[in-house]
Amino acid sequence: MISIRFTQGVILYALGLLLTDFTLNVGVASMNTEPDSNLRCGQRNKRGAGNQFSGAQDGQAQFGEFPWMLAIMKNLPGKDLSYKCGGSLINPNVALTAAHCVTDNNTDIQYSVRAGLWDMDLLVEILPHEDREVKKIIVHPDFIPQALYNDIALLILKTPLTLAEHIRTVCLPPQDFPLDSSMGRAFVSGWGKTKFNNEILDSATILKKTDVPIVDKEKCEENLKKTRLGPNYRMHDSFICAGGEANKDACKGDGGSPLVLPVGEDNATYFQAGIVAWGIGCWEESHPGVYVNVGKFRNWIDEQMKNNNFDETTYQYQRKVELSN
To answer: Is the pLDDT of residue 57 over 90?
Structure first.
């Protein structure tokens, strides 16, 4: 059986992609000025944020390494907040996640996002996390829950998050940006089911990261035909694939989490190519993870931002350009 990747459900998982260079509309910083890095999208903290914490173990992210990473939390009346899915920040007022994470039939569920989180078990971290309630959920109109086609949603927050070293937006690719295996490896992060010292844990308390290769659609489809999906399986155009290596994968609980790729010559900026959606098992060789193709939905995202009067430049890749006299 195929399962959807969120904290309540069976074992279906998803992955995303990586990219080394692409053409975007480029914003130009004024000469001899460097924009505040907190205001530029896709700025990864490779060594961590705050006090340059370096205590993360193998498979764990540094504190603040992926500052766009969000925990989507659910709240039922009379109960504490609990983790549901991953997500990403594209604007101080807007989160991006998988539609299957926020289309629960229980109308009593209220959602919020937690930004700047690293360890689920710590009340106090190097820099404080921020919680914001969700005011509005925008699910793609063509989302098909039974097949997870067009599995994408935007969460509009009641009040904006405060951008900081450990809370930043991720860049988004242009509409229909082509992805293939030549683009190398991507990072997927999340708090889902994990392996630690060969022990399988139901969830990760510390944010984990995994590097995975992009898989061409044709190869991915052929590999998935050899699974219980059968020889007639056809991959929908809203999906992309990554992974297929032993012990490198997203898993249950990682649904909605971002798959990011480096941008530009120095690979210092990242854009979100995928959203964890589903997969066949976890950590299995030749079973790539399946992700939402974010590039397919860039125009839709832009349209929703305009309709809600939000700034689209918060996820627009910018590079500094030095002008000669």
So the answer is: no
> What are phi and psi for residue 124, nearest 5 degrees?
-125, 125
Q: Nearest CA to 4 among 249, 290, 208?
A: 290
Residue 297 CA to residue 174 CA, distance in Å, equals 9
Chain segment 139-184, per-residue pLDDT in tens: 999 999 999 999 999 999 999 999 999 999 999 999 999 988 888 8
Which DSSP state fits 43?
A: B
The mean predicted confidence, pLDDT, of the chain is 82
Which helix (H) or strand (E) segment holds residue 223: the answer is helix 217-225
Domains of the chain from N-terminus onward? 3-20+173-295 (2.40.10.10), 45-57+66-170+298-312 (2.40.10.10)
Residues 6+ apart with CB under 8 A from 128: 116
Of the candidates 23, 16, 15, 18, which has an alpha carbon nearest to the alpha carbon of residue 183? 18
Could you tell me the pLDDT band of residue 201, with boundaries at 50, 70 and 90?
Answer: low
Cα angle, residue 186 at apex, residues 256 and 168 outer, rounded to 5°: 60
Number of residues in the chain: 325
Residue type, 220: C
Best CA proximity match to 23, nearest among 293, 265, 308, 300: 265
